[in-house]
Write a structure and sequence with these properties.
With about 375 residues, the protein is mainly alpha-helical. It has helices spanning about 5-15, 25-50, 60-80, 85-90, 90-110, 115-145, 150-175, 195-220, 225-245, 250-275, 280-285, 285-320, 325-330, 335-345, 350-360, 365-375. It is globular, with a radius of gyration of 23 Å. It starts with a helix and ends with a helix.
Length: about 375
C-alpha cells in the first residue's frame, strides 16, 4: 500500500469517527433545547384548541411560564453566584456592588419627575431584550468552542445567523407597533419606521439559508456535525418568528419567548453546580443512590427558585400590580413615594441577573466554567 493510500485510509477513518459535540450530554441537550421548543410550539396548538391563542395569556400560562420559568430563572443566577463560596470570593465586590448600584440607579431613574417610571421600564425592557439576544448567541459560541470550530468565516456566519434570528423579529415588532403584547408594559418599546424591517428581511432569510446550507455541506462532505448548535439556531429562529411576527398574541409571545430562554438556563446553572463526576463519593454508590441524590438536588434547586419567585411576585402583586388577589391576597395601599422605592427595589434581582450574566459565563475568566464545558461528554 502506498503512502497516499495510507493517508487516504487514515483520513477516512478520522472522518468516520468524527464526534458530535454536546454541551451536557445528548439526552440533556436535546431535552433542554429541542424539547423546550417543542413544548412551546405544542402549546400554540393547545392554546388554539382552548380558544386563547389570540388573546392574553390565561392564568395557568402565567403561573407556568412567567412565575415558574421566567421569574424563577432570574434567581438561578443568585444560586450560581451567592450559593457558591469559591465563586463568590473570587469576585466578591462585583457580586456585592451590582445589586446595590442596581437599586440606587433604578431608584434615581424611577423618581425622576413624571416621565421617570416610563423611562425606568423602557430601560429595563431593553436590558432584558439585550440579555435574551445575548443568551442565544452564548449557546452558539459554547457549541462552537466545544466542537473546536476555528473557521473565521464560519464564526461570522454563525454570529450573523443567531443575531438575525433574534434581532429581525425585534425590529419587525418595533416597526409594527402597537401590538397585542409587550415586554413589560405597553409602550415600553420605541416605534421604528416600517422600512427598517423591510430592509433587514432579505438579509435575515439569506443568512439563515447560508447557515443551514453550510451546516449541511459540512456534515455530508466532511462529517463535521454540530446538531446542538443547529438546534439552537433553528428553534430560536422558529420561536421568535412565530411568537412575534406570525401571531399577534400575548399568549403566543409568552410561551415561545419564555420557555426556550428559561429552561436551558436552569440546566446550565444546575449542571455547573452539580456536574457529574465532581462528587467522588457519589460515584462509589450504586445507581439507586445516585438517582436519589439527583432527584433530591433537583427538588432543592427548583424548589428554592420557585419559592423565591413566588415571594417576589407576591410583593409585586400586592404592592404594585394588584392583578391576582386570588393567588397573592389583597393589595397594599401605599403612597406614590413608597412605590417609587418599591418598584426599583423589586427589580433588583432582574437587573442583577442581566448584568452578572455578562460576567459569570465567560470561559476565559472562569476556569471552573471552562472545565465544566470542556469535560462534558461529546
Amino acid at each position: 500500500m502506498t503512502t497516499a493510500d495510507l493517508n487516504s485510509a487514515s483520513g477516512e477513518t478520522s472522518r468516520s469517527r468524527a464526534k458530535v459535540a454536546w454541551l451536557f450530554s445528548p439526552a440533556v441537550d436535546l431535552a433542554a433545547f429541542l424539547g423546550s421548543a417543542v413544548v412551546a410550539l405544542a402549546l400554540l396548538a393547545v392554546g388554539a384548541s382552548l380558544g386563547v391563542l389570540n388573546s392574553d395569556s390565561p392564568e395557568w400560562t402565567w403561573i407556568t411560564a412567567i412565575l415558574l420559568i421566567d421569574v424563577a430563572h432570574v434567581y438561578a443566577t443568585g444560586f450560581r453566584v451567592y450559593a457558591n463560596r469559591e465563586d463568590f470570593q473570587a469576585r466578591k465586590w462585583l457580586f456585592l456592588l451590582t445589586p446595590v448600584l442596581a437599586f440606587l440607579i433604578g431608584w434615581a431613574i424611577y423618581s425622576e419627575g413624571t416621565g421617570g417610571p416610563m423611562r425606568f421600564w423602557r430601560i429595563l425592557a431593553y436590558m432584558a431584550v439585550f440579555h435574551f439576544v445575548r443568551q442565544q448567541y452564548g449557546w452558539v459560541a459554547l457549541y462552537r468552542s466545544k466542537a473546536g470550530e476555528q473557521s473565521q468565516a464560519g464564526r461570522w456566519i454563525d454570529t450573523a445567523a443567531i443575531y438575525l434570528a433574534t434581532v429581525y423579529p425585534l425590529v419587525w415588532w418595533h416597526s409594527h407597533l402597537p401590538r397585542n403584547f409587550w415586554w413589560f408594559l405597553n409602550e415600553d418599546f420605541a416605534k421604528a419606521p416600517e422600512a427598517a424591517a423591510r430592509i433587514l428581511e432579505p438579509f435575515y432569510w439569506t443568512v439563515l439559508a447560508l447557515y443551514f446550507g453550510r451546516s449541511l455541506v459540512r456534515g455530508l462532505k466532511q462529517n463535521e456535525w454540530n446538531p446542538g448548535k443547529d438546534i439552537v439556531v433553528a428553534t430560536t429562529a422558529a420561536c421568535w418568528h412565530i411568537g412575534i411576527i406570525t401571531f399577534n398574541s400575548d399568549f403566543a409571545f409568552t410561551v415561545t419567548n419564555v420557555i426556550i430562554h428559561g429552561v436551558p438556563y436552569f440546566v446550565l446553572v444546575y449542571w455547573y453546580r452539580y456536574r457529574p463526576g465532581q462528587d467522588a463519593s457519589s460515584e462509589e454508590n450504586g445507581s439507586g443512590s445516585r438517582r436519589s441524590r439527583t432527584l433530591g438536588r433537583v427538588a432543592f434547586f427548583l424548589g428554592t427558585l420557585w419559592l423565591l419567585a413566588f415571594v417576589e411576585e407576591l410583593l409585586w402583586d400586592r404592592g404594585v400590580w394588584h392583578e391576582r388577589s386570588w393567588l397573592f391576597g389583597s393589595a397594599w395601599h401605599q403612597s406614590g413615594q413608597l412605590q417609587s422605592v418599591l418598584v426599583p427595589l423589586l427589580a433588583v434581582p432582574q437587573i442583577t441577573h442581566y448584568i452578572l450574566d455578562g460576567f459569570i459565563w465567560k470561559r476565559r475568566s472562569n476556569p471552573r466554567f471552562r472545565e465544566t464545558v470542556e469535560s462534558t461528554p461529546t
